[in-house]
Amino acid sequence: MAQITVAVDAMGGDNAPGAVVEGSLMALREMPDLRILLCGPTEALKPLTAGAGDVKERIEIREAPEVIGMHDAPVLAIRRKTGSSMVVALMAVKDGQAQAALSAGSTGALLAGGMLRVGRIKGIDRPALAPVLPGRKNPFLLIDAGANVDCQSEYLRQFGLMGSIYMEKVMGVSRPRVGLLNIGAESEKGSRLYKEAHQLMASQSVYNFTGNIEARDVPNGDADVVVADGFDGNIVLKYTEGLASSLVGMLKDEMMSSTRSKLGALLLKPALRTFKKRMDYEEYGGSPFLGVSGVVIKAHGSSGPVAFKNALRQAHKMVSVDISGQIAREMAKLAGLNDKGESDPQ
Amino acid sequence: MAQITVAVDAMGGDNAPGAVVEGSLMALREMPDLRILLCGPTEALKPLTAGAGDVKERIEIREAPEVIGMHDAPVLAIRRKTGSSMVVALMAVKDGQAQAALSAGSTGALLAGGMLRVGRIKGIDRPALAPVLPGRKNPFLLIDAGANVDCQSEYLRQFGLMGSIYMEKVMGVSRPRVGLLNIGAESEKGSRLYKEAHQLMASQSVYNFTGNIEARDVPNGDADVVVADGFDGNIVLKYTEGLASSLVGMLKDEMMSSTRSKLGALLLKPALRTFKKRMDYEEYGGSPFLGVSGVVIKAHGSSGPVAFKNALRQAHKMVSVDISGQIAREMAKLAGLNDKGESDPQ
């Protein structure tokens, strides 16, 4: 059995390193072909892995004395803090010692590190952050959720490709429906960027572009992949978090407003718990950074052990299906189309 | 007592003309100084106003045989269908026969009509759609919710001004907090447009700019005015509708999942009704189209009689406080600042 090695930034996130190590041990027990390089200060990590027992042989501490904080300037930190747990994890991927890197640390730093330390897949202009979000009918992937503001239309076309491959290979959706976030269903709707992107996406058949998707239909899950500029995608991502918690808050206010409603709320407790779980996108693991030549996953900053375990399962899956190789191959097809398209007079 | 005259597009919206007329009569009974010009085909409207009784003298039918449909091309329809109920209503404002126009018809056509038939306030580059949305702590105004895609930073600065005046004069918020929608709180965050807009907004003191507001904090009501490009604003508006209904749907799924939860849901019925009402932005009337020289309000397409009545109350209030005059005066101040700013070397 070939092993899959994931380099884990043990110092990233609000609950590091405790929850990171706990989640890592859980993942090792669940996946017998998983190996973990735990990157961080040995003296802090050693006691935490003491109870590893049966999986001890598959977890190795990689000394990294520095930490990139949430307030470090991303690019600068990636360049200078070469001994940080995040850079050490990314370098392990670059050097081929690991196939994937996982971190719950600074998003900005991880994106910069993915670009600068791991590098892009040939043909991909801009790697993109691509979390899977809960939809009413089915989960959907949002790409780009914030890696690139001021996108060009070609980037959006590539996001569609990467998102489609992820949903098919990792999430098992056959021929994913790729929609372009927009303010109307008609192809001529939207800003200049989105109108151009629509044309580019409509003129290829490497993936299944289903047209514009209006924001109101996004939470339904009417598209499996929702393509957006990183600014708009980040607005959607953050707004989802904000609105969901605001709605639940407003609902709670109403539930506490009378004895009758309090009793109702009590009876509904288990249902509300399931609801909350359904809304919780950590269930799907972390946000993959698609387009870098290796697997890089951003776990939510507030991840607990189970979220880390899920993100490791996701990393394992992404490596197993060779996501980067798939993207490289399909991108070559898309680029071929593009060259042909460009030589045609329009 | 000076009368306030509102020209109402009797044929706009899903429930026209019945709900429009019913809401108009309710409004007339509530506001003794209100007068309504009901624009539409006389033969269709006459029977509906037959029961007006005590308010009959304050409602006048203005013959308009044509209707602008939802599929008409906006600019073309406004130019060609001069006999449509929407154009007749807008022209009444232009000609000074009414101080406000209200329509639940095509948003695109109403925006085009506001620009082409009513005209802009001096100094305002782009009028903007500005609905008030429910927030957890307090309602907030979103500007621009979709009138202008591909904005320039100066437009956004003006949106801040108009939104601030509306929240202060119409909604009674003192010194409204104006936030710029963004992907981070720091001033250097965001796309080129938003970075520039931030600088422009921060360099004036005509209104109270409180900095960037992250999408996750928007539904809380942390800003009284949320400024955005029309593309992003429309995404937020539509996504709010979609997510709220999707969340309520998911919640219902869970509530129907067991006998226990069904009983809980039954007990919670009144609380859920209040919750739904709180979420319903029609409570605040329609979306004003700020920046045109007159009051123009877009009512939601699905408005019922009460929503129309509320929108008429809103029109009445906007006229009473002379919203267009207020905007013109404050815009002159802002433009003065701008000229000074430009002559200073940076």
Structure description:
Two copies of one chain form a homodimer. Chain A has 346 residues and is of the alpha/beta class. Helix content of chain A is 47%, strand content 15%. The first copy, chain A, contains eleven helices and twelve strands. In chain A, the strands form two sheets. Chain A has a seven-stranded mixed sheet with strand order 3-2-1-4-12-11-5, sandwiched between helices. Chain A has a five-stranded mixed sheet with strand order 6-7-10-8-9, with helices on both faces. In chain A, β11 and β12 (295-298) form a beta hairpin. In chain A, α4 (85-94) runs parallel beside α5 and α6 (153-169) crosses α7. The model of chain A is unreliable at 341-346 (pLDDT under 50).
From the structure above, extract its key features.
homodimer, 346 residues, alpha/beta, seven-stranded mixed sheet, five-stranded mixed sheet, 11 helices, 12 strands, 47% helix, globular
The number of helical segments of chain A is 11
Computed Rg of chain A:
21 Å
- Which structural category fits the helices and strands of chain A? alpha/beta
Mean pLDDT of chain A: 92
Main sheet of chain A: which strands, in order across?
3-2-1-4-12-11-5
In short:
2 copies of one chain form a homodimer. By secondary structure, chain A is of the alpha/beta class.
Helix/strand layout:
2 copies of one chain form a homodimer.
Chain A: E1 4-9, H1 18-30, E2 34-40, H2 42-49, E3 59-63, H3 74-80, H4 85-94, E4 100-103, H5 107-118, E5 128-129, E6 132-133, E7 140-143, H6 153-169, E8 178-182, H7 192-202, E9 209-214, E10 225-227, H8 230-255, H9 259-279, E11 287-290, E12 295-298, H10 305-320, H11 323-343
